């Protein structure tokens, strides 16, 4: 039965809600903090920051990651920058403007209170990171430098060349390892979470598998924080790291945590195009490149195979500048991606496959000089040259959209707690801040806001609220741990049994799933395609259950890891199609062909779809139940999103 969800937003004016929360939260005295243990799964910006901050408060923290080192989390791959409303360029920015741009950029499908808190915290994030020694770019005067990103008409993005994620993660990693050295954090590398343990309605631990030995382990705690990133790898080809997956949040979903807006996926407009079926990963070219690079295609189809340098300006279609003069090449990602696809669908795509457009730095090099362009983007240009063997200083880059980020994730309330007591979700693995489309340079902002500045308060409030109950400790001998571990072992045994007689490897099925999801639940969706996706995914599910081939040692096989993750991707892919099917509107990255304006822009239906869809798992093979959280806009007027 569907129910209306309570987001737990504090009373008071928008700008005072977070202050009111902190003023009325339950506290835990310093001596008692040592009595509590918090599990944090994931060591990226959200997870690393949360683990370090909670340990510094005095809690015992267990930190888990799938890699050999916490600093190899996928946050390290972020390139372009991090937003903050510092207004250093004196160009009219403010906390309110960052809030408004984020709400508008998400096509009015995000919760106002969460987004405003994010904008408030943004300024503190920069101070925190500078104090940690993060080497942000600076002006000649010594002031921190800013550049522009899509969906904004101010420069609010702080950056460290094209390595911002890496530098921010090293800051969080140093804070984390300081607490490891002090004994406040116990680090568990090479661990993959395979189940959530619930005791008396509260999250009290996890079951993990050691990826080097195959050992199944139990870990108990008083609260669990998931910070495991997004689910973009359901598409097989994406800019996400090969190790990225949805298993932790999907296993929590199967234990009862609601999954919010799974159809909201961001497809990044500037990625190196697919070159063949051999690929298992795509490469991002930072959105920051659209500050100085101009996006175009030839006007005439007969010019498609010409040397681009031989095509004069009058025969070039700078289509983003033509269609969106106010924002030009810095429109939001969903708008830029759809327009790039549209050009290719018209037969004006460039390159051997015809699935690319040009990103050209000719004019910037003329205006600024090659040295200045290299200073801004040198490592990105080097990466492009290394992959394509083309020199972007001399010829335009060729780019095409690719899956990059997921706005959906576990449903959380204002405190970042899921509907399961004691289970929190932070960073990309929750749904909370970006609506139907994330603005560029806001992922790093959200991860660090959640980890450094929100969870230390909200986890404390939870522990203080249930202190008497939680001080009655639950250990790993509890029957709930025994049951969860037994279910994990049974599923592994089932996979190995089926795998002895099957014919198709997990990777074969996975690649086919990715193709179905990309073609039917990608940049453009319609009713017939979504129904076809569900049918094809059901067929792949049957193949997975009855005809999968597993090779290798039971304890060391990476095929077993792939098979386990594929099980979750198959169920998630089906839910994404179901979610997209019920949302009969276009908004942000969710573009229904049946719901578009005469100009081909997204057409929202605020009367019927201004809500968060939060799905409840009912069992394998059963339709999930959708719950709704109505989105109320008291401070921003709902309007047609326009960047023209």
Describe the structure in brief:
The protein is 37% helix and 14% strand. The protein is built from 18 helices and 19 strands. It has a five-stranded parallel sheet with strand order 5-2-1-9-17. A five-stranded antiparallel sheet has the order 11-15-14-12-13. Strands 16-10-18-19 form a four-stranded antiparallel sheet.
Structure, described:
This protein is of the alpha+beta class. The protein is built from 18 helices and 19 strands. It has helices at residues 17-24, 30-33, 45-57, 95-105, 112-132, 164-182, 247-254, 319-323, 333-345, 362-368, 370-388, 443-465, 467-470, 479-499, 506-520, 527-546, 558-582, 606-609, and strands at 37-41, 60-64, 82-83, 157-158, 185-188, 191-199, 202-210, 216-220, 223-226, 259-260, 265-271, 294-298, 316-317, 357-360, 397-406, 409-410, 423-425, 611-616, 625-630. Helix 3 runs parallel beside helix 12 (443-465), helix 10 (362-368) runs antiparallel to helix 11 and helix 16 packs antiparallel against helix 17. The mean pLDDT is 96.
């Amino acid at each position: 039965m569907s129910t209306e969800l309570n987001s737990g937003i504090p009373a008071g004016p928008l700008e005072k809600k977070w202050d009111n929360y902190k003023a009325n939260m339950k506290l835990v005295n310093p001596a008692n903090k040592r009595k509590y243990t918090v599990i944090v799964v994931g060591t990226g910006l959200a997870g690393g920051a949360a683990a370090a901050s909670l340990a510094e408060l005095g809690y015992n923290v267990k930190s888990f990651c799938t890699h050999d080192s916490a600093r190899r989390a996928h946050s390290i791959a972020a390139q372009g920058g991090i937003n903050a409303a510092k207004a250093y360029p004196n160009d009219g920015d403010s906390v309110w403007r960052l809030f408004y741009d984020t709400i508008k950029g998400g096509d009015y499908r995000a919760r106002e209170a969460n987004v405003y808190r994010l904008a408030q915290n943004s300024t503190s994030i920069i101070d925190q990171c500078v104090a940690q020694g993060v080497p942000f770019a600076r002006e000649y005067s010594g002031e921190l430098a800013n550049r522009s990103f899509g969906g904004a008409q101010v420069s609010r993005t702080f950056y460290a060349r094209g390595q911002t994620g890496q530098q921010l993660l090293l800051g969080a990693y140093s804070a984390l390892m300081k607490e490891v050295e002090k004994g406040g954090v116990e680090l568990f590398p090479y661990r993959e979470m395979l189940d959530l343990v619930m005791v008396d309605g509260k999250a009290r631990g996890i079951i993990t598998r050691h990826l080097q030995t195959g050992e199944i382990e139990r870990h108990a705690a008083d609260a669990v924080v998931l910070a495991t990133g997004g689910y973009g790898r359901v598409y097989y080809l994406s800019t996400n790291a090969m190790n990225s997956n949805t298993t932790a949040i999907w296993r929590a979903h199967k234990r009862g945590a609601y999954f919010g807006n799974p159809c909201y996926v961001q497809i990044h407009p500037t990625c190196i195009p697919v070159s063949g079926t051999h690929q298992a990963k795509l490469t991002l070219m930072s959105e920051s490149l659209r500050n100085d690079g101009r996006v175009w295609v030839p006007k005439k189809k007969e010019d498609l195979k010409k040397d681009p340098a031989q095509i004069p300006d009058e025969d070039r279609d700078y289509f983003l500048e033509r269609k969106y003069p106010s924002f030009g090449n810095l429109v939001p990602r969903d708008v830029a991606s759809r327009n790039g696809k549209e050009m290719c669908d018209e037969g004006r795509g460039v390159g051997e496959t015809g699935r690319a457009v040009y990103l050209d730095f000719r004019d910037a090099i003329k205006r600024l000089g090659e040295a200045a362009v290299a200073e801004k983007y040198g490592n990105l240009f080097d990466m492009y040259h290394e992959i394509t063997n083309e020199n972007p200083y001399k010829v335009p880059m060729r780019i095409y959209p690719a899956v990059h980020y997921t706005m959906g994730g576990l449903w959380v309330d204002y405190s970042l707690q899921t509907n399961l007591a004691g289970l929190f979700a932070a960073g990309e693995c929750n749904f909370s801040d970006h609506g139907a489309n994330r603005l560029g340079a806001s992922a790093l902002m959200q991860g660090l806001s959640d980890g450094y500045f929100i969870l230390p308060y909200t986890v404390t409030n939870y522990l203080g609220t249930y202190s008497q109950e939680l001080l009655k400790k639950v250990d790993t001998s509890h029957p709930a741990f025994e049951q969860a571990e037994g279910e994990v072992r049974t599923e592994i045994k089932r996979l190995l049994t089926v795998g002895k007689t099957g014919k198709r490897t997990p990777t074969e099925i996975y690649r086919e799933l990715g193709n179905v999801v990309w073609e039917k639940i990608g940049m453009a969706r319609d009713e017939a395609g979504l129904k076809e996706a569900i049918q094809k995914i059901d067929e792949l599910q049957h193949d997975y259950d009855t005809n999968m081939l597993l090779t290798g040692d039971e304890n060391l096989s990476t095929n077993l890891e792939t098979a386990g993750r594929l099980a979750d991707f198959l169920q998630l892919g089906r839910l994404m199609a179901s979610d997209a099917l019920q949302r009969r509107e276009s908004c942000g990255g969710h573009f229904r062909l049946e719901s578009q304006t005469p100009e081909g822009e997204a057409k929202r239906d605020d009367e019927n779809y201004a809500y968060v869809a939060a799905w409840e798992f009912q069992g394998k093979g059963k339709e999930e139940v959708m719950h709704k959280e109505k989105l109320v806009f008291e401070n921003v007027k709902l309007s047609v999103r326009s960047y023209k």
